[in-house]
Write a structure and sequence with these properties.
This protein has 460 residues and is of the alpha/beta class. It is built from 13 helices and 21 strands. The structure holds N-(aminocarbonyl)-beta-alanine (URP) and zinc ion (ZN).
């Protein structure tokens, strides 16, 4: 006897495509087969629908504090938006704290902030804001908190350059942790800012120019050299946005540097710098900034060729009022844009439907790889023993994105006006119907914090 039997669907498990049925017991996938004839407490007919694994978003900022600005959604509304778009698990990049904050204390604070809020399962990345000896020693305690990845920023208030990151990489290598890095060269950024300030060029249209593309390539190059020196320490480069950044990564891989993982985001695939000239310029103030149409094409090509491992969102939602702080000076605009609710549909519509990538590839970068890389082996695929997190897509439905995207409350989407040739029919999380007809049914706080264990996943 199964708890749930979903019948008659086109299924892509993440590994193979078939037409048939999915059986669920105890919140886990029990069987996937062309035909399952067995009794179930509940049976659902999914004729005409495509069932894929629920999305895994490896890069969210639902609880970010940026200067005086707290993100507009928080874990409850942010996870509801993710769920509405078919994402069933996320990993949050947590906030910095006051000077001197140790990584373990920052994880404790973020875990407290998230507790009892999320509608879907989640995990946390740690963050390192100083490369001093106390921080390096403290990193060793993260696995006891169930955290096996952490982030460093090469820009912003706690910028760590490649020299500062060298000992962090060595420590992560020794402990089996995955270091995620926001790679932009802070020195050049500082100079560009001063140049624009001196010239009075502070309209939002200048945001893109304030973060030149060389910053990314240079920071990645220095970072990868430091990782090489640390015995090919595993490195996950977040939100790669330029063809130049990709070229540096390609070179390092050609020199057989191991353990390099690459993330990009839908905004760098689908939106370009022309947005800074339009009405939504403030919404597009994010770091790195939107790039050229040629960069978008280079990223699509790299995605199709398997050079990009993960598509995550960097979801960071600020309200229109918060964004308007930058209307006369983009430096005062909190950086970031929402996208957790839109990622799966965007990648399906603009990737798979538009024949830029296969469905298999989409599932690798949106589900399988982020789950595998970050040690969430129960997520990201439809296979016996995995959590029954299922996204039922309706290929006949159309989705019109408004200021709130698929669902949410930020009101500052960069995707507004887009019509997508697909829709989310429903979503199951651990075998429970969690979303139907666009409305979340999962209770606030029903998402579990997923502890992760150190694994040897990074030795290719
Ligand atoms: O502009 C962005 N991306 N804000 C979020 C913080 C970060 O850099 O990831
Ligand atoms: Zn970042």
């Amino acid at each position: 006897m199964y708890d749930l039997l979903i019948k008659n669907a086109d299924i892509h498990t993440g590994e193979q495509a078939l037409h048939g049925d999915i059986a669920v017991r105890g919140g886990k996938i029990a069987a996937v087969a062309p035909r399952i004839d067995a009794a179930a407490l509940e049976t659902a007919d999914a004729g005409g629908l495509l069932i894929i694994p629920g999305g895994v978003d490896a890069h969210t900022h639902f609880g970010l504090l940026s200067g005086e600005n707290r993100t507009a959604d928080g874990y409850a509304a942010g996870s509801a938006a993710a769920l509405a778009g078919g994402t069933t698990c996320f990993i949050e990049h947590i906030s910095f704290g006051p000077p001197g904050s140790l990584p373990s204390a920052l994880v404790t604070a973020a875990a407290r902030q998230a507790a009892g809020e999320s509608l879907i399962d989640y995990s946390l990345h740690g963050v390192v804001q100083s490369a001093d000896v106390d921080s390096l020693l403290d990193v060793a305690s993260l696995p006891r908190q169930g955290v096996t990845s952490l982030k460093a920023y090469m820009t912003y208030d706690y910028a760590l350059n490649a020299s500062a990151l060298a000992p962090v990489l060595k420590t992560c290598r020794e402990l089996g942790l995955l270091l995620c890095v926001h790679a932009e060269d802070d020195h050049i950024l500082g100079l560009e800012r001063q140049r624009l300030l001196a010239a009075g060029n502070l309209q939002p249209a200048w945001h893109g120019k304030s973060r030149p593309r060389i910053c990314e390539a240079l920071a990645i190059s220095n970072l990868l050299r430091a990782a090489r020196q640390a015995d090919d320490a595993p490195i996950y480069i977040v939100h790669v946005s330029t063809a130049d950044g990709l070229a540096v990564i390609r070179d390092a891989r050609q020199r057989e540097q191991q353990n390099i993982y690459v993330e990009t985001c839908p905004q760098y695939l689908l939106r370009d710098e022309s947005m800074y000239q339009g009405e939504l310029a403030l919404n597009a103030v994010m770091s790195p900034p939107l790039r050229s149409a040629a960069d978008c094409e280079a990223l699509w090509k790299a995605l199709a060729a398997g050079e990009i491992d993960v598509v995550a969102t960097d979801h960071c939602a600020f309200s229109p009022a918060q964004k308007r702080q930058g209307q006369h000076n983009f430096l005062l605009c909190p950086n970031g844009a929402p996208g957790a609710g839109e990622r799966m549909l965007l990648m399906f519509a603009a990737g798979v439907r538009a024949r830029r990538i296969s469905l298999q590839r989409m599932l690798e970068v949106c589900c399988l790889n982020p789950a595998r890389l970050f040690g969430l082996t129960q997520k990201g695929r439809i296979a016996p023993g995995a959590d029954a997190d299922l996204l039922l897509l309706d290929p006949e439905q159309e989705t019109l994105l408004g200021a709130n995207g698929v669902y949410g409350k930020a009101g500052s989407s960069i995707y507004q006006g887009l019509r997508l040739p697909a829709g989310v029919h429903s979503v199951y999380t651990r075998g429970q119907l969690a979303l139907r007809q666009g409305m979340p049914l999962a209770a606030r706080g029903s998402g579990r914090f997923l502890r992760r264990a150190v694994s040897a996943a990074y030795d290719e």
